[in-house]
Amino acid sequence: MLKLLTLILAAVDVQASGGGGHSAHISDLILPAWNFVPLVILMIVFLRKPLRESFNKNAEDVEALYNVAEEKDKEAQIKLDMYEKKMSSLKVESERVMKDAHVQTEQYQKHSLEETKHMIQKMGEDADSKVAYEKKQAIRDVNASLVDEVIAKTKSKIKENKDFKTKVTNKLVAEI
Q1: Which of 15, 50, 123, 142 has the greatest number of C-beta atoms within 10 Å?
Q2: Structural domain of residue 169, as residue ranges?
Q3: Radius of gyration (C-alpha) of the chain in whole angstroms
Q4: What pLDDT, on the 0 to 100 scale, is given for residue 169?
Q5: In the 8-state DSSP scheme, what is residue 106?
Q6: HSE, side-chain direction, 13 A CA sphere, residue 20
Q7: Furthest-apart CA atoms within the chain: distance in Å
Q8: Is residue 70 part of a domain?
Q9: What angle do CA 105, 97, 89 make, to 5 degrees?
Q10: Burial code of 86-115, b = ≥16 C-beta within 10 A, e = fewer?
Q11: How many domains does the chain have?
């Protein structure tokens, strides 16, 4: 290998020191091409394996990064789907709760209205029965006081009049 490199350098040196004419001809390119071809061959031989390994490593890194990104994308999609399901179920749940609340409110209002009507009716009945009771009680009190007054007046008239007193005594004795 060292010999080949020495030979190439010698050929370049010979070419550089040659001819003083500057006429351009295609044959003037043969020697530089002859020098360039071994250089390219040497570069291919020596650099092919490291370059291939470098490109393969970069390809593997890119593929690994792509696989990780794909996996993260799948995980993110699964989480997104899960959260969307939760959000839709929460929406449905909140709608159901609101509907239940409205139904319960309406039921409470109906029940409260019925209970109020029942209570008003019961209070009316209680008031009527209380008025009737107090009326009866007042009539009894009036009758009792009237009877007491009649008895008192009768007693006083009997006591005042001796004639009535003897008639009442005779009548009571006769009944016994």
Answers
A1: 15
A2: 51-175
A3: 66
A4: 80
A5: H
A6: 0
A7: 196
A8: yes
A9: 165
A10: eeeeeeeeeeeeeeeeeeeeeeeeeeeeee
A11: 1
